[in-house]
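Session log. Operator J.P. requested a structure for one protein chain; no other inputs attached. Running the standard single-chain path with token output.
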Amino acid sequence: MRKPFVAGNWKMNKLAGQAKILVEEMLPGLQSVPAVESVLCPPFLSLMLVSELVANTGIGVGAQNLFWETSGAYTGEVSPEMVREFCDYVILGHSERRAYFGETDQTLNKRVLAALKVGLTPIVCVGETLSENEAGLTADVIHRQVVEGLANLTAEQGEKLVVAYGNRNRTGSKWTSRQYRFSGYYSPDTGGFIW
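Structure written below.
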């Protein structure tokens, strides 16, 4: 059975100096819970610093995204190899990436395969919008995201990733965490999700 897992996505917050202070304040608490696999996911510009601060502590570092190509004329993108230099994890398919940058299940799949190829642990995000939830489409949406986002993965590769569920609501919406309508689990026996 896998260890409980928690990842802190800092999103677009904290300058490098602030990141240093935050990690120094958080580290004792995180280390006091060794039964939980803990990962910090700061903005790209703080990855090197945070990876140095948590070296040999048992705390992981993750990037918030990557591009599937190894190099080239992709202004503003970061390759899997660049991420792997400082990280063991990467968040992929986050609802904000889907909403603001047009990422799809197909581009998620390219990112997942690229991450696995360089030895990163993908943290694959799935979840429905409020309208999809209210229409009773949660299971269908998540099933599609998993099937298309994780297409062409072997069972061995599937064991190396984390699937994170979260609804794709926006801050200030009327939807609260009490209103999630999600009941499902992955079955290794069937190789799929059971709803």
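Operator note: The beta strands are 5-9, 37-41, 60-63, 89-92, 121-126, 162-165, 185-187, 192-194.
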